[in-house]
Amino acid sequence: MMWGFYGNWGMGFWMLMWWVLLISILVLAVYGLVSLINRRAVQQPALHPDPLAILKERYARGEITTEEYRSMRQELLE
Prior knowledge:
This protein is mostly helical.
C-alpha cells in the first residue's frame, strides 16, 4: 500500500519540499534579524550632537534669523 505516492518518488518529493521550506524560513528569519539590527544601528542618535548641526537645523526651521545664525556660527567657530 503506497497511499498514492507512486512508490518512493512521491515521498521523496515531499521530503525535499519540506527541507526547502524549512531552510527558506530559516534564511528569511536570519535576513530579517540582520536587517533589523542594521536599521537600529544606523538610526541611533549621537550621544553628543554637533552644535553646528543643531544651529543649521534651527536656521532651516526658521527659528532664528540670518543675523542670529551668523553670529552664533561665528561664536561656535571661535
